[in-house]
Amino acid sequence: MVGRPLDESELIRRAQRGDTHAYEELVHAYQGIAFRTAYVIARNAGDAEEAAQDGFVKAWRALARFREGAPFRPWLLHIVANEARNRRRSAGRRANLVLRAATSEPSGDAAPSPEASVLSHEQHGALLAAIEKLPEDQRLVLALRYFLDLSEHEVAETLGVPQGTVKSRTARALERLRESYD
Amino acid sequence: MTELERALVTLGNELEYPQTPDLWPGVRERLGSDRRRVRPQLLAAAALVALAVAIAFAVTPARSAILRFFHLGAATVERVDTLPPAQQRSLVSGLGPALARPTVHVPGSLRVRSYYSRPGLAAALLRYRGKPVLYAVLDGDQMGIAKKFADSETRVEPVALGEFGLWLEGGRHVLQWGSGRVETRLAGNVLLWLRRGKTYRLEGDFLRSQMLDLARQITL
Fold it and tell me: Scanning every residue of chain A, which has its alpha carbon at the shortest distance from the alpha carbon of B156?
């Protein structure tokens, strides 16, 4: 049977009715961001995989409560983030500097993009080290907002805090980074 | 965005994450046990609603089978353990020769490819959204259609249409036109509804919302 590609809301409606094929499409669409979100929280690939998988299973079971028309991604990431936090708490450890800067060299004659020219590779390392020294709540806000490109609203939903809290944590984090980085 | 924020975005693009694993196999395995637990409940709920409003309720003496078998106007829907033998056939298989004269009323906005007629049943093969759809109207409450499904993927849901409606979607179903010579074939997604003593049926490769739109065009 050949059909048109289904939009997200239709996939969600189908999944709510028990259609696992529709849910498979949702899992494949969001497993990347779910895994990375879990990873920046849990700081361990194995824990992140378990957290993301458990998050998708719990999201499936909670689909009946998902409000039609609401954005799916932050709703899902909130569940995944809770799973990742639980694992991190239970593991009782925090890996040092798990986020690593890529080591790829600029290629041939390609001119560096304006973004790439903002900082050198060494400066990236220094900035990353400064981020690692931030309190956990501030570090997470920065990681979700700037590394994973979530909107302020999505960060708030994911962490289960008011949007104003995200704003204030971001401002404090940026201020501390400026102090330590400048 | 400040220079520091731009630097954070750039840094984010250059971070090295572990490769994202394919999470679906593990998720699917765990959903399988959920589905086996939930599906009978959903089917039972749909069946109970159907039973409450069905015009005629023809069950076998075995009351224990009540949730596996329900009746909607001239149609019966039955959940079976094993599907009877059936083949993929044309939507109009078993309906006899195509007729030029109209046998059912179809709004002028819809394109009719052919009409069909059998005792107690009139039908038209329509073209809708570029795909074929079979529209049938059955008289009375005697068995005119038997629908059997066994696939765990099949969904049976009540819909707000006419006096009562049902939507069947998902896995393979077997359809039998019940009057006269029995024809059996595999069937696609189906919308069934009752209105003013008649049983209406639409079958085709469409979403529930699309089929409901078509049904409302036909019966309004």
Answer: A17
Q: How sure is the predictor about A152, in pLDDT bands with cuts at 50, 70 and 90?
A: very high
Min Cα separation A102/chain B (Å): 5
Average pLDDT score over residue span B180-196: 73
Report which of residues B114 and B38 the model is more confident about.
B114
On the question of pLDDT at B143 being above 70, the answer is: no
The identity of residue B106, as a single letter, is V
Looking at this predicted complex, what is its ipTM? 0.82
Q: Which domain holds residue A28?
A: 7-92
Residue B178 inside a domain? The answer is yes
Q: Are residues A88 and A134 in the same domain?
A: no
A64 near B61, Cβ under 8 Å? no
Q: Give the domain CATH number at A13.
A: 1.10.1740.10
Task: Tell me: do A133 and A86 sit in the same domain.
Answer: no
Output the pLDDT for position B158.
80
Residue B27 contacts A, CB cutoff 8 Å: yes
- Quote the mean pLDDT of chain A: 81
Could you tell me where the DSSP H helices lie in A63-117? 72-91
Q: How far apart are CA B42 and CA B148, in angstroms?
A: 17
Q: How many domains does chain B have?
A: 1
Instruction: Flag if B11 and A142 touch (Cβ within 8 Å).
Output: no
The token pair that represents A113 in the structure block: 């993009």
Say whether residue B39 is in contact with chain A using an 8 A CB cutoff. yes
Q: What is the mean pLDDT of residues B129-151?
A: 73
With a CB cutoff of 8 Å and minimum separation 6, the contacts of A96 are A132
Chain A hits for B155, Cβ within 8 Å: 17-19
Entry field: residues in chain A: 182
Q: Which pLDDT value is given to residue B37? A: 47
Contacts of B30 in chain A (CB under 8 A): 53, 57
Domain that holds residue B39: 21-219
Angle CA(B90)–CA(B93)–CA(B98) in degrees, nearest 5?
100
Q: Do B16 and A101 touch (CB under 8 A)?
A: yes
Instruction: Examine residue B179 and state whether it is found in any structural domain, yes or no.
Output: yes
Count the domains in chain A: 2
Q: Which of B160, B152, B147, B136 is nearest to B216 (CA)?
A: B160
